[in-house]
Amino acid sequence: MIELQDIWKTYADGSHALRGVSVRIDRNEFVYLVGPSGAGKSTFMKLIYREEIPTKGQISVNGFNIGKLKPRKIPYVRRNIGVIFQDYRLLPKLTVYENIAFAMEVIEAPHRVIKKRTMEVLELVGLRGKHNSLPQQLSGGEQQRVAIARAIVNNPAVIVADEPTGNLDPETSWGIMNLLEEINFRGTTIIMATHNKEIVNTLRKRVIAIENGIIVRDEMRGEYGYES
Amino acid sequence: MKVSTVVRHLREGLKNVVRNGWMTFASVSSIVISLFILGVFLLLAMNVNNLASQIESQVEIRVYLQLNTDQAKINELKNAIGNIPEVKSVEFVSKDQGLELLRKSIGADGSELLEGYDSTNNPLPDSFTVEVFEPQKIAYAAKQIDAISKADETKPITSVKYGKGTVETLFKITNAVRNIGLVIVAGLGITAMFLISNTIKMTILARRREIGIMKLVGATNNFIRWPFFIEGALIGLMGSGFTIALLLFGYSRLVEVSQFELGLMMIKLVTLKEAGFFVSVLILGLGTLLGIWGSTLSVRKYLKV
């Protein structure tokens, strides 16, 4: 479902973020992306949701050739990919409900469907009572739950999460991980970049390690492998 | 686009105006300030133009006839002059009327000068006072009147006078005043454009993140653009509405207050009725366009990511 073939990414300043990466991630997999800062993890993820295009190589997501996508088509591909960030990236002036519903308004879903589905995902992430709150009134963990709810509200095939627990305390992090596992269990592919050794070593999944723009390790039920 | 989406865009545009209260305030203020200055100069230019037209319209041709021209000849000449396309009206001024007018224009101080003159020994010739449609063509009309006389063997016209030289200078001045007014108004218009679009650009710069998130969840560029478009139009409408209210109120007060004093100087301001519609439409159109232009231009910049 996600396939990278000999992907190179060189930025305008001449730095090589990825140097010949080939990997295949199947439907319903849960993949940890590990490696030192600046190794190319974020670039890897940005290529998947088409924030960046590869300098060389082919990348396909859900059967779309991402590198050759016409700009006009990008929004439609993104609707099938939920993205989660370390800093949540919620719209600060919208309520929790509006933040989530926004992702459905974008695809022009009927009003009634939006309402039903938004309340459904709020229930799933455990924030049903907070739908009228503004992001700033919530704790970090709650904000990340809102971000996750927004990412899954349109039932995407893939979730890309860039250090989703990076700003959270251990206990809250585990709550988020349980949620992601639940979402994965329901059939969504998850790719998660992380520096959290404890999580990777406890909740065993496929681990892809990137260093200097190259995949140095790819193991099923792998370990974190770095000192944290 | 679905109807529900149109409603959504309108709602979002309206909400954004409220949500970004301070930014809206800043944009509306910058529109009000720049359009107000523009409006003041526009009204000034309209009045200057009006004044110039008033002065110009007072320009007329005097056609002096030979002494003892008979009535038939006078009628013939009057018709001939009236037939010149540029001529608006021809009025016969008999020598007695001429004397009367001269007495009036000299006034009481110089009344002795004309003492002893009456209809029996009136030294003045009969004359015509000719008005033209376009004051700028007065020299041409005068030349044609002269030609009528030259074609006639009795040469009934002794002279055609229209203040040659003086009139040309007057036109030079009024034209210069008009052009300067136009340049100032155009310059202010352009300044207003930059000021407003800059303010709006800043308000949208603050919302770059918002646009980024919209793109991330798969919003199409048009979907992102519409609420900003509506927001810009609303800001423009609010700003220009405010400006128009301010301008019209201020101007009506000015006309009222200055009526008497300016009236003494024979200056008549353009009435609110004459100026109001033009100024309102211009400012409303300009304000709305600027609001839309500023917001769509700025959004476009961040849509490229």
TrEMBL record, chain A:
Query: Do you know which InterPro entries this protein is assigned to?
Result: AAA+_ATPase, ABC_transporter-like_ATP-bd, ABC_transporter-like_CS, ABC_transpr_LolD-like, Cell_div_FtsE, P-loop_NTPase
Query: SUPFAM superfamilies under this entry?
Result: P-loop containing nucleoside triphosphate hydrolases
Keyword vocabulary terms for this entry: ATP-binding, Cell cycle, Cell division, Cell membrane, Membrane, Nucleotide-binding, Transport
Organism domain of life: Bacteria
Sample GO molecular function, one term:
transmembrane transporter activity
Residue ranges of the ABC transporter domain?
2-228
Q: Which GO terms describe its cellular component?
A: plasma membrane
Q: Which GO terms describe its biological process?
A: cell division
Pfam families recorded for this chain?
A: ABC_tran
Regarding the membrane, this protein is recorded as: Peripheral membrane protein
* Localization per Swiss-Prot or TrEMBL: Cell membrane
Q: Tell me its family.
A: Belongs to the ABC transporter superfamily.
Description of how the protein assembles with itself and partners: Homodimer. Forms a membrane-associated complex with FtsX.
Quote the function comment for this protein: Part of the ABC transporter FtsEX involved in cellular division.
Question: What protein name is recorded for this chain?
Answer: Cell division ATP-binding protein FtsE
Q: Which organism is the protein's source?
A: Paenibacillus taihuensis
UniProtKB/TrEMBL annotation, chain B:
Sequence intervals crossing the membrane: 21-46, 180-200, 233-255, 275-294
The residues covered by the FtsX extracellular domain are: 59-150
Compartments, record wording = Cell membrane
The family database entries (Gene3D superfamilies) matched by this protein are listed as: 3.30.70.3040
Instruction: Give one Pfam hit by family name.
Output: FtsX
This protein's GO cellular component annotations are: plasma membrane
Membrane topology per record: Multi-pass membrane protein
Keyword Cell division among UniProt keywords: yes
**Domain of life where this protein originates:** Bacteria
Would you kindly state one Gene Ontology biological process term found in this protein's UniProt entry? Answer: cell division
What UniProt keywords are attached to this protein's entry?
Cell cycle, Cell division, Cell membrane, Membrane, Transmembrane, Transmembrane helix
Q: Where is the ABC3 transporter permease C-terminal domain?
A: 183-304
Q: Which InterPro entries match?
A: ABC3_permease_C (IPR003838), FtsX (IPR004513), FtsX_ECD (IPR040690), FtsX_firmicutes-type (IPR058204)
Entry keyword Cell membrane? yes
Similarity remark: Belongs to the ABC-4 integral membrane protein family. FtsX subfamily.
The function of this protein is: Part of the ABC transporter FtsEX involved in asymmetric cellular division facilitating the initiation of sporulation.
**Protein name, entry field:** Cell division protein FtsX
Q: What is the lineage of its organism?
A: Bacteria, Bacillati, Bacillota, Bacilli, Bacillales
